[in-house]
Amino acid sequence: MSSIAKESSFFSRICTDLCKGMCCDPWWGIISYTIVKEGVISNPDDFKKEIAKGIHDRVQRITEVYVTNERPARRLFNLPERYTVHVRNINTNGNKLSINVLAMFAFRCIFLSPDKTCLIHPSFLGGADIRPPQCGFMGSLNAHIGEKGYCRIIHAAQTNNESAIERAIEVEKNASERHYKEGFQTAEEAAEAVIGRVREYCFKYAKHLLAGERQAVLGRNDPCYCGSNKKYKKCHGQ
């Protein structure tokens, strides 16, 4: 057996015997993006619907990309089991609100069997690889932390240190369980949580973006919130 084949066999055993498909059960779709809101939040329910729609759109993009390489193609995922949306930070520029979020969706791969066997893995199909290209990136030995294809467990396995492998598996398991627990069953619930963070931020730092709060925060002779350098009474306070 060649060294490449031995190496491939070794890391395959790490996935099947030790990891047991942890990265696929659930499989986390992760997208970072910015939600922009112009003007006062006069109707939080409408804003929540906008945020939920953005979440649904990104879920759809993932399900459309992760399909088998065959004709006809088959999707790997249905809807996520959990929607975890972290607000990383919020910024304001005049009357514009920018919300930077990290969305994490817990999918269950349709082709992962109850015993954690990937039913479309080349080793199961006699060498034929019909997986999406993205699946093949996972566990890349050349990837570093934060790069596509990085796997903490595979990189720990390169050390041949059983304790290091066990620690890596424990870290990944705890992180997955924590994100799953923090998530919501629907995109609408996740959007409501984002709105809650926005309300909290605006109440502390940008009350002028909350309907009914502007007069309470700004005097008529105060600088206008929009950054025009005019007094509020001569700008948006007219």
Provide a compact summary of the structure.
With 238 residues, this protein is α+β, with helices and mostly antiparallel strands. Helix content is 39%, strand content 15%.
Characterization of the model:
By secondary structure, the protein is of the alpha+beta class. It has one domain (3-205). It has seven helices and three strands. It has helices at 3-19, 44-65, 133-137, 152-157, 162-182, 187-205, 214-217; strands spanning 27-38, 82-93, 96-107. Strands 1-3-2 form a three-stranded antiparallel beta sheet. It starts with a helix and ends in a 21-residue tail after the last helix. Mean pLDDT is 82; it is low at 1-10.
Oligomer: single chain
Tell me the number of helical segments per DSSP (H or I, 4 or more residues long).
7
Bin the helical content. 25-40%
Order of neighbouring strands in the sheet with most strands: 1-3-2
Q: What characteristic shape results from the CA principal axes?
A: elongated
Low-pLDDT parts are 1-10
Return the domain count.
1
Q: What's the overall average pLDDT, rounded?
A: 82
Give the DSSP E fraction (strand runs of 2 or more residues). Answer: 15-25%
Q: What is the CA-atom radius of gyration, in angstroms?
A: 24 Å
Which structural class do you get from the secondary structure elements? alpha+beta
How many β-strand stretches?
Answer: 3
Q: Sketch the topology as an H/E string, one letter per element.
A: HEHEEHHHHH
What does the largest sheet look like? Answer: 3 strands, antiparallel
What distance separates the N and C termini? 81 Å
